[in-house]
Write a structure and sequence with these properties.
Largest sheet: none
Radius of gyration: 18 Å
Structural class: mainly alpha
Number of strands: 0
Mean pLDDT: 83
Order of helices and strands: HHH
Low-confidence stretches: none
Strand content: under 5%
Helix content: over 70%
Number of helices: 3
Oligomer: single chain
C-alpha cells in the first residue's frame, strides 16, 4: 500500500506533464487565434502543476516521520510550496476563462 501512495502521484504528474507539453506545442503553432492563446496559458499552468505533482512527497524533509517517500530538505519543501501556489493561479485562470466564454456566448446571442 505504501508503494501505491508513493508512485501514484508521480505517475499522474507524468501523464499531466506530457499532456500539457502536447497542448503547449499545438497552441504555440496556432497562437494567432485567441482560443489558442488561452489554451497556451492553460498548458503552461498544467505543465507546472504536473511537475509539482510528480515531485510531490519527495520534496518533504527527510526527518518528517509522518510522510511517505520523502527525501527532500526544508528548501525543497519551500520551493514545492511556492510552485503549488501556481495551482491556485491555474484555478483562477480557468475560472476567468469560463467567465470569458459565458460573456462571449451571451454577446453572440444578443446580436442574433
Amino acid at each position: 500500500m505504501v508503494e501505491v501512495e508513493v508512485w501514484s502521484p508521480r505517475l499522474v504528474g507524468a501523464v499531466v506533464t506530457i499532456i500539457s507539453m502536447i497542448s503547449l506545442c499545438k497552441s504555440l503553432q496556432r497562437r494567432k487565434e485567441i482560443f489558442h492563446r488561452l489554451a497556451l496559458g492553460m498548458g503552461f499552468h498544467g505543465f507546472i502543476f504536473g511537475i509539482c505533482y510528480m515531485v510531490g512527497p519527495a520534496a518533504i524533509p527527510k526527518d518528517d516521520e509522518n510522510a511517505v517517500g520523502n527525501a527532500g530538505t526544508v528548501a525543497t519543501c519551500s520551493a514545492q510550496g511556492f510552485f503549488n501556489l501556481r495551482i491556485i493561479i491555474d484555478r483562477d485562470f480557468l475560472l476567468c476563462l469560463g467567465i470569458f466564454y459565458l460573456q462571449l456566448c451571451w454577446r453572440i446571442e444578443q446580436f442574433r
